Amino acid sequence: MDAHWKKIWIGSAGNMVEWFDWFVYAVFASYFANSFFPKGNDTANLMNTAGIFAVGFFMRPVGGWLLGRVGDRRGRKAALTLTVSLMSTSAVLIALAPTYAVAGYGGVAVLLVARLLQGLSVGGEYAASATYLTEASAPGRRGFASSFQYVSMTAGQILGLGLQILFQHTMTKSQLTDWGWRIPFVVGAAGAAVIFYLRRSMLETEAYQESGAAADERGTIRALLRHKREALLVVALTMGGTVAYYTYTTYLTKYLSNSAGMAKPTASLVSFCALVVFAALQPLAGALSDRIGRRPLLITFAVGATFLTVPIMTLLKHAGGFWPALGLSLLGLVIVTGYTSINACVKAELFPTGIRALGVALPYALATALFGGTAEYVALWFKKGGMESGYYWYVAGCAAVSLVVYLTMRETRDIDLKRVGRDETEPARPDAVPAS
């Protein structure tokens, strides 16, 4: 197997398992929500589980800092091995968490600890895999190669939805809510153990090995502060993309069943089919960015999300059947592809090698915690307050902010990662990159 493809395959496979464990919580939340809280209002219990889901996001900046530092100081391989170990531990905890009937709120405490560990893991996984896939790719193919990050992320979610659909057709509702929801977490823990073994033998990237950064400067906040503009740019360009992504992925199934009145099995099937197409689009869009640049795709996403989110979400609420819901979901995800397919490489291209993992990890994790992690909770808050359409405008507004950033930033496609990596003393300014 070609060395580039071996690196991409191992990095992507691990990323898939990581995000399977991360997303399966949201996928099965509607089945275990009443197991950890007193029975009563289903929407209130979903909000409680969504709140715990959001807490995991607020641990991601800590994971971004800690594991980003490991990635810059010890190597991308070391960071990726550590992230999958943490994720395996958290999956085991959720699989064994006691219910409210057994331990009262003790089960909630276990869930909370597990989500904090998951947040720590994913906070480092995103940046480590984004950096690894970008650095491991051949020159002129970074957009294509790094797009596999969202292919693998989406594959993890597809596997989670696939298990849910399988269980919906092979288990009774009581079996699924009593114990069936635990099975995906057992599967995730086992998958993480396999990936841990594979990642121990993975190859380090040439860009990292050839970096001339001083050892005491690698992965430090001091070094990151010399790149404040790039860090702020990562936050701003992430804002709209992360809200839109979580709206059309993790929240979509709940929205279709809880707001549009669609049966849960049908809502799950809509999400599953839409995500399969979405995953297939990522390499195509990534390859396109290698030809025409990153900015055209980012701008297309932001324009679409700003002006089409409100009509898409409004029509989805009244879709009624499988095919209209699938068509609208696909439209939303096609728009989001302009962001997801290339955001990993765009962020990695902004920073020199010695600070690249931390530079991507920390500002991205902060933006995702503030906007992506709270998306589902904000949506349910608007719904509970009788103002559900307010959430549509919130998503559109976040996309509009990112649109301004995309219109003013410079192109990053042609940057030489190794050249930037050898010059650690000069901040890598976005406006110093030649526009294509």
From TrEMBL:
Residues 7-414 form the Major facilitator superfamily (MFS) profile domain. It is found in: Cell membrane. The keyword Thylakoid does not apply. The chain crosses the membrane at residues 49-67, 103-127, 179-198, 231-248, 268-285, 297-316, 322-346, 358-379, 391-409. It is a multi-pass membrane protein. Gene3D superfamilies: MFS general substrate transporter like domains. The keyword Amino-acid biosynthesis does not apply. InterPro entries: H+-coupled_symporters (IPR051084), MFS (IPR011701), MFS_dom (IPR020846), MFS_trans_sf (IPR036259), Sugar_transporter_CS (IPR005829). CDD domains: MFS_KgtP (cd17367). Keywords: Cell membrane, Membrane, Symport, Transmembrane, Transmembrane helix, Transport. PANTHER family: ALPHA-KETOGLUTARATE PERMEASE, PROLINE_BETAINE TRANSPORTER. Belongs to the major facilitator superfamily. Metabolite:H+ Symporter (MHS) family (TC 2.A.1.6) family. This is MFS transporter.
